[in-house]
Amino acid sequence: MPELPEVEVVRRGLVSWVRGRTIDFVDVLDARSIRRHALGPGDFIGNLEGAVVADVVRRGKFLWMPLLDSSPGAPERVGGSPHPSVALMAHLGMSGQLLMQDPDVPDEKHLKVRLRLSARDGMPEQLRFVDQRIFGGLFVTSLVPTEDGGPGGLAESPLPLIAEEAAHIARDPLDPNFSFDLFYRRLRKRKTGLKRALLDQGLVSGIGNIYADEALWRARLHYARPTDTLRRSEAERVLQSAREVMVDALAAGGTSFDSLYVNVNGASGYFDRSLNAYGREGEPCARCAAAGIHATIRREQFMNRSSHTCPVCQPRPRNGRW
DNA sequence: AACGCGACCTGCGAGC
DNA sequence: TGCTCGCAGGTCGCGT
Questions:
Q1: Distance (Å, rounded) from C-alpha A313 to C-alpha A288?
Q2: Which of A48, A157, A237, A271 could form a disulfide with A249 if both were Cys (CB 3.0 to 4.6 A apart)?
Q3: In this structure, is the CB of residue A133 within 7 Å of any atom belonging to strand C?
Q4: What is the pLDDT, as a whole number, of residue A79?
């Protein structure tokens, strides 16, 4: 569910609560939520207990916390300075939440993993992973060198390392180091539709079904537009649209339709009110209405999910163009 | 190599 | 009341 703005809201919320704290106890309530940790719950817990959370960083929708071993003489102390080599990875999937909670707060219905952190004045004790659909999960992974300078995201980590499972993910459009030239070159080589390309995290990260539909609407482009016919100006337009809609969503605390997406303090974002296409089936297209034209947002199945378009200002491409 | 589909899950609202 | 169906923000792996 959560796309870049929602994950970034979570990252920002998390960092001040957890940075520098030690993970004292770990409780895995549902092993399915750590199924990507191949060595199982015992190994997962063993890796985390006693570790210090060094930071919270993100690449696309992948979020991770580099860990320092708090024991003396730990192997990752390179050159006398702490240097994380492993991280706690989190992906929220469709319904995952990371919540900071006091110990007296009753367990959430879909609580999957509980981390008890070292005491800090005025800070909640627990970091909880809650996930209804279990498409998300936690696992411990290695930090590996990255060619392109760091994990990316909006708050660049000084560490030129990236979590192994996020290494194949491209930078996101809000990342200062995002390369439009590289994106456009790779886009033109694809033989696919524009929305499928926008959702391909290896090409550009952070965009999901909501912001893909919104970016396409803002750019007045159809989801099935063949990528190999896309002009540079059109690619720039859709990228810039994605940037604008995600910046606006970030400022609004993300998009929430229900209690499934909340920040680390349990609060919903309110960007759903600003959506122009996603979830607006049957409603008038705001841009057409402003021009005195009557047009209705349409929902169609594409890639086994819903796509929302205005049939008037986002016409279906013909002969590879429009 | 790249594309595109099915699988992985639970829960909710609509319709009968 | 209770059933079935369709729908939901994502990613991965496999067959073509």
A1: 7
A2: A271
A3: yes
A4: 46
| CA distance readout (Å), A227 to A148, A184, A219, A317 | 25, 9, 14, 11
Helix A4-18 crosses helix A232-251 at what angle (to 10 degrees)? Answer: 40
Query: Is residue A2 annotated as part of the catalytic site, yes or no?
Result: yes
CA of A194 to C1' of B4 (A): 14
Give me the DSSP letters along A41-99.
HHHHHHHHTTEEE---EEETTEEEEEEEE-STT-TTEETTEE---EEEEEE-TTTEEEE
From the list A261, A290, A5, the residue with the least C-alpha distance to A133 is A261
Q: Which residue matches tokens 């708050």?
A: A155
Q: Is A61 a catalytic residue?
A: yes
Query: What pLDDT digit, counting tens, does each position of A166-192 carry?
Result: 999 999 999 999 999 999 999 999 999
CA distances from A213 to A155, A193, A225, A295 (A): 26, 13, 13, 17
The reply to whether A6 belongs to the active site is no
CA A34 to chain centre: 18
Mean pLDDT computed over every residue of chain A: 92
Q: Catalytic residue among A58, A61, A112, A220, which?
A: A61
Beta bridge partners of A305: A302
- Enter the pTM of the model: 0.94
Helix (H, G, I), strand (E, B) or coil at A217: helix
Domains in chain A (CATH in brackets) are: 4-166 (3.20.190.10), 180-309 (1.10.8.50)
Question: Kind and range of the H or E element at A214?
Answer: helix A209-219
Q: How far is the C-alpha of A12 from the C-alpha of A155, rounded, in Å? A: 9
What is the three-class DSSP state of A181? helix
Residue A305 is among the residues annotated as catalytic for this protein: yes
Nearest nucleotide to A192 (CA to C1') is B3
